[in-house]
Description:
Number of helices: 5
Strand order of the largest sheet: 2-5-1-6-7
Structural class: alpha/beta
Shape: globular
Order of helices and strands: EHEEEHEEHHEH
Number of strands: 7
Mean pLDDT: 95
Strand content: 15-25%
Largest sheet: 5 strands, parallel
Amino acid sequence: MPKVLITGMSGTGKSTSLQILGARGHRTVDTDYGRWSHWVTLPDGSSDWVWREEAMTDLLADHKEGSLFVAGCKSNQGRFYPQFDHIVLLSAPADVLLARVAERTNNPYGKRPEERAAILHHLAVVEPLLRATATVEIDASAPIDRVVRQLEELA
């Protein structure tokens, strides 16, 4: 009953990996959608898209059968690391990420110049923090079938 968190920057293939894993019969949750995340206002007045902690706690506690793959990159995800068997960082060079977000049709994020700048900023600032806490890093510039195979090997 392994629980695997797939994290990384926009354009690394988290959602695509989940789609393939789900089609292969694995339980998957994309925390960018539905009841898993919500906006909060931080003390400095800025806002942040974070996991709904009660929903995530219930999801992880109630998982009893098969493999569970959860994807997302949220500022509060570290609180849940002890409940996962693997924390997987999908990583790829900036040019790969920017090309992917420019070409994708299933998510509008990354099309505007300020979003592309944010992706580069997160790559420089956030990805090193994720790398320091990941249990596994996968080169997401590899073909998606190889990435998914590596994820399945963890389960």
